[in-house]
Prior knowledge:
By secondary structure, the protein is an alpha/beta fold. The protein contains ten helices and six strands. It has helices spanning about 25-30, 30-35, 40-60, 65-80, 85-95, 105-115, 125-135, 160-170, 180-190, 220-225; strands at about 10-15, 115-120, 145, 175-180, 195-200, 215.
Amino acid sequence: xxxxxxxxxxxxxxxxxxxxxxxxxAAKGCRDLLGDDIDRLTGLxxxxxxxxxxxxxxxxxxxDFWQVTGDALDxxxxxxxxxxxxxxxRLMTLYLTLDAFPEVPAVLKRLxxxxxxxxxxxxxxPKMLDAVVKSANLVGLIDAVLSVEEVGIYKPHPKVYQLxxxxxxxxxxxxxxxxxxxxxxxxxxxxxxxxxxxxxYAQRRERLPGRPDREVRSLSELPGLxxxx
Length: 229
């Protein structure tokens, strides 16, 4: 059964890591050094990366996402007992050139052709986001790249979602927000955005304020939900 389209959408805003870009691509690019440790490293690195953003926000001790990403990687490598010369530097460099998920370029083109604004709203630092957007050849398909560095606190603080409202000059209710992170999707919904949860990783529903309006497994389903033929 096809879900009904969302109404009144004028802009589509995307989380970056896990939604547009595959954060697992960095470790996969080091298969020659990691071998069977790829999945374990990817999972723990991502888990600590997110934990550190939340804990820094609660403590009011902000550092940019590049620092947080490096700290999380150091924790993961030490925990897993992985010591390979040059591996850390290689992983961090690869994080700047993560692969976009296969459907992303075509989806963004359809949204632009339909006259919708497109934007990224991410924990990533401006340097990181600029690098990954260029590497994935998405320049020209994204109208605005918004980093939490503009407000100095990480998602899911409401100040982050307000960035999109202010920059795109549309009300929250006219924004379709897409994230693969359930907690991010719920927070954007609680803020007042229409939300399409791209549940790539088969997560369970959260017990948090807000509720995604639609749930998909791939962004390829998005154009039909926002009136982009």
